[in-house]
Every structure is written in structure tokens, then in C-alpha cells.
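Field log, afternoon session.

UNIT: design team B
ACTIVITY: writing a sequence onto a fixed backbone
BACKBONE:
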């Protein structure tokens, strides 16, 4: 009997891994990593190298299990230390992604880009934002392709410029408040007129004045530098939202900083009124607990009340309640329990007579 170990033809080892490949000095080097850990390592979420690498070994072909030669490692990296070489490949190498995983990542990024575009734009004809499904449909109509090597935000801004060539779509303006001395306000208003900004309000005293206006997001940096460096005033972003009829707001991403969106005055008043109502209800809930319990245990369909919650629940399963529910759908008055039993018996007798009729 032969002692030779026969391996299956075409067998591939180490296939359930995420391979990271680096080409250097005309040679290919790969390392075997656990799936879905390489990106976490590069973003700084994962710190333990052993949780990322399946082995501290450098391969020339991971799928076939072919190890890299020591002379090739020294020629390419100047050392044969496997751990140091694995770290360099992990940082600079290209992640090899499977077909289904790549499709899932592209689909997720496609959705992220559409979401950013939805929050940043609106329809100038209707003054309303586009829905996420409409944005995705427009992206498919212009044959937009996701670039996995670029950020979603950068692609979204480029996509908005491309969509503006074919569809009625516009960037949402920024609402900004600038506070400066009174003698500098005319210069600011002149600059805003040159930027085609919309002045919302102007208020202040003899010493300082504040101007609230809406500005195109593309002019944010110019306006910020003008106010802070030349006027030495105060620059504040009030909202990154679209104001429509009824002071409705649509939240929007900001290209520069995360500033909380303040509540409108009307909404703030309604919140305060709601808090007062809740406090009054809490104070009076104790005095009305008995009355509330009686109302809770009353069946409006059968017009009957129960002191026990268990009886109340069992009532809803009874034939009496079910029969009154049928009568209620036919807009008939409810029956008492005795009348209901009699009506059910009469219905059974009519059914028996119908079965035996010739």
C-alpha cells in the first residue's frame, strides 16, 4: 500500500480570508487577514494585530498557500522580519474584496451618497426637498457610478453639480448671523449684495448690530474670512436648513462644522405648553385614578362595566361580545346577555330547520 498522501486536484487553501496585496520591486506579497477587520484596523478602531492577521506570515499567493521567499523579502523590504513586513503590507496594501462583499459595499455607499444629496438639496420649483427614492432614480438616470476609493461626501458634492445640469435641483442655503460694529454694517451689506445673499433681518444698538442672512454654501469660506479677518466681528451659523411655508425645516449636512439647529419660536412655545399639560395631568392623575379604572373596564360595544380586569378580558372572548360586535357592524343596538343567548338559540333553530327543509 502506498504511503503517499493524495491531495484533491485543484484544492485551494486559505480561501476564507481577506487578502491584502502589495506589489513592490516587481514582486507580489500578500498577507491573510480575518474578514471585515482590515478597515477597522486602518481607521483605528481595532488595536490588536492578532485580531486582524490570521498568521504573521507573508505569502506570494494566499489562495494557494504559497509562501514568499526570504531573499525576495530582503530585496523588497530590506528585512526578513515577518511581523514588520505584515504591518507595512497592512498599511499600504490593497484589500482584495470578494464579489458579493464588493457589491454590498458599493450598494451601501450608493445609499449614503443619495442620503447626503437629499439633505443638501431641494427643488426650487416646489421649495420642497427630494425624497431618497427620487434621488436614487435621478442617479441611475445619469448613470452615476460609485468610486470606492473616494469619500461619500466628496462624491455627493460632485453629484449635485452634475444633477444641476439635467434636473431642477439646488443647494440649500446657510442661515448665518454676523455681529459687528455699526459703522461696519454698510460694508457688510455691500458685500452681501455682491454675493446675492438674502438679508432676513437687521437689529442692534448704537454700538453693535447683527445681520441675519441666507448664503449659498459655496461662499461660506469667503464670508467667514471676510467677517473674521477683515471686520473682526462675530460669525455664527444659525441653521443648515431649508425654510418653507409654515417655517418648516429640513435638516441638512454642513460642509464645515456641526452646529445644532435651533428650534423655531413657535415650536418652542408648543413644547412649553405640552410640558405644562403633562405636569397638570400628572398632578390630577391620582385623584382620577378610580374613575379612569372604571372607564378602562367598560365595554362600549355591550354597554356594560366590570370591576375585575380579569372578567373584563374574558368578556371580550365571549359569544355575547362577539354577537354585539356583529350587530354593531350592521348599526344595530346592543343586546343584554339574556337577549343575546335567546337570539343565538333562535338563530340555531332556524339553521336546523333550514338543514331539514325539502
Amino acid at each position: 500500500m502506498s504511503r503517499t498522501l493524495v491531495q484533491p486536484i485543484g484544492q485551494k487553501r486559505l480561501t476564507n480570508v481577506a487578502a491584502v496585496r502589495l506589489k513592490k520591486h516587481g514582486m507580489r506579497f500578500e498577507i491573510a487577514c480575518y474578514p471585515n477587520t482590515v478597515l477597522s484596523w486602518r481607521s483605528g478602531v481595532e488595536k490588536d494585530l492578532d485580531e486582524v492577521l490570521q498568521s504573521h506570515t507573508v505569502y506570494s499567493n494566499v489562495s494557494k498557500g504559497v509562501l514568499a521567499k526570504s531573499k525576495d523579502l530582503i530585496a523588497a523590504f530590506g528585512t526578513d522580519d515577518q511581523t514588520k513586513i505584515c504591518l507595512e503590507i497592512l498599511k499600504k496594501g490593497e484589500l482584495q474584496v470578494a464579489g458579493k462583499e464588493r457589491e454590498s459595499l458599493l450598494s451601501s455607499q450608493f445609499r449614503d451618497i443619495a442620503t447626503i444629496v437629499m439633505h443638501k438639496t431641494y427643488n426650487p420649483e416646489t421649495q420642497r426637498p427630494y425624497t431618497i427614492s427620487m434621488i436614487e432614480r435621478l442617479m441611475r438616470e445619469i448613470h452615476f457610478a460609485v468610486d470606492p476609493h473616494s469619500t461619500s461626501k466628496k462624491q455627493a458634492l460632485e453629484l449635485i453639480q452634475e444633477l444641476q445640469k439635467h434636473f431642477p435641483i439646488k443647494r440649500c442655503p446657510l442661515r448665518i448671523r454676523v455681529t459687528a460694529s455699526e459703522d461696519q454694517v454698510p460694508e457688510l451689506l455691500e458685500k452681501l449684495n455682491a454675493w446675492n445673499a438674502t438679508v432676513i433681518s437687521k437689529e442692534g444698538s448704537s454700538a453693535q448690530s447683527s445681520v441675519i442672512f441666507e448664503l449659498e454654501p459655496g461662499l461660506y469660506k469667503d464670508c467667514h474670512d471676510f467677517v473674521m479677518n477683515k471686520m473682526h466681528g462675530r460669525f455664527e451659523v444659525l441653521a443648515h436648513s431649508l425654510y418653507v411655508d409654515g417655517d418648516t425645516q429640513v435638516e441638512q449636512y454642513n460642509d464645515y462644522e456641526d452646529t445644532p439647529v435651533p428650534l423655531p419660536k413657535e415650536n418652542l412655545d408648543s413644547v412649553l405648553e405640552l410640558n405644562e399639560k403633562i405636569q397638570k395631568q400628572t398632578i390630577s392623575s391620582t385623584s382620577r385614578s378610580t374613575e379612569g379604572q372604571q372607564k378602562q373596564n367598560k365595554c362600549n360595544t355591550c354597554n356594560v362595566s366590570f370591576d375585575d380586569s380579569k372578567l373584563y378580558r374574558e368578556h371580550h372572548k365571549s359569544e355575547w361580545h362577539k354577537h354585539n360586535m356583529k350587530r354593531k357592524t350592521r348599526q344595530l343596538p346592543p343586546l343584554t346577555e339574556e337577549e343575546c343567548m335567546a337570539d343565538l338559540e333562535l338563530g340555531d333553530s332556524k339553521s336546523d330547520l333550514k338543514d331539514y327543509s325539502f
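LOG NOTE: The longest strand covers residues 174-181.
NEXT ACTIVITY: expression trials, pending approval
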